[in-house]
Amino acid sequence: MPASKNPAVQIFTPDYWEEACKHLSKKDRVMKRLIPKFGDACLESRGDAFTTLARSIVGQQISVKAAQTVWDKFALLPRKLTPANVLKLKVDDMRGAGLSARKVEYLVDLAIHFDSGAVHVDAWKDMADELIIDELVAIRGIGRWTAEMFLIFHLMRPNVLPVDDLGLLNGISVNYFSGDPVSRSDARDVAVAWAPYCSVATWYIWRSLDPVPVAY
């Protein structure tokens, strides 16, 4: 999992990517066609866990552009973006950055979980995906989909299949079912050939709909 040379923003990539691409190309005809289209591009992880989850909360139910504007204002409030510093912020200042009352509550709950040790960040590397999801969904404002995105984009877990993700379902519909509607059960059936690299296959399915990689 090499890091970038820029000390300001560390970017990590999965060490399993090449092996995953070989496996998927061998097991799945659609993957064999898709993977070569995107060259060396692959999943990237950046930032720390708290910041990543805070950004996901800020961005809920608003456009990407609006989310970035609010985030830029919010991130300037504490001297350094840490759970303890977020807990010191005044509600009025957070609202002034453009956050709704509910998102302020969610960010405070996130900070409490991290500051109190209710989430076991240091142990996540050795924990099963579902156990991490259980910890994350106990935080207000974080549902299973957000937890799965965190597993894929931050922890870079190789075998996550987010069957509630509309992009994944749409991509499977286009690539495997000639555009016919796809159920979660259909997605699971298709993904049997993807294991143990469902995250990688999902990433390529997303790319087939939008060639610009998502940074979470």
From TrEMBL:
**What Gene3D superfamilies does the record point to?**
1.10.1670.40, Hypothetical protein, domain 2
What name does the UniProt record give this protein? DNA-3-methyladenine glycosylase II
Matching entries from CDD domains are given as:
ENDO3c
Q: Which GO terms describe its molecular function?
A: alkylated DNA binding; DNA-3-methyladenine glycosylase activity; DNA-7-methylguanine glycosylase activity
Q: Which reaction does it catalyse?
A: Hydrolysis of alkylated DNA, releasing 3-methyladenine, 3-methylguanine, 7-methylguanine and 7-methyladenine
What does the record give as the organism's lineage?
A: Bacteria, Pseudomonadati, Pseudomonadota, Betaproteobacteria, Burkholderiales
SMART domains named among the record's database cross-references: ENDO3c
Which keywords belong to this entry? DNA damage, DNA repair, Glycosidase, Hydrolase
Looking up Pfam families in the UniProt record yields: HhH-GPD (PF00730)
Whose protein is this, by species?
Variovorax paradoxus
Annotated EC: 3.2.2.21
Q: Which SUPFAM superfamilies match?
A: DNA-glycosylase (SSF48150)
- Identify the residues that the record assigns to the HhH-GPD domain, covering every copy: 58-210
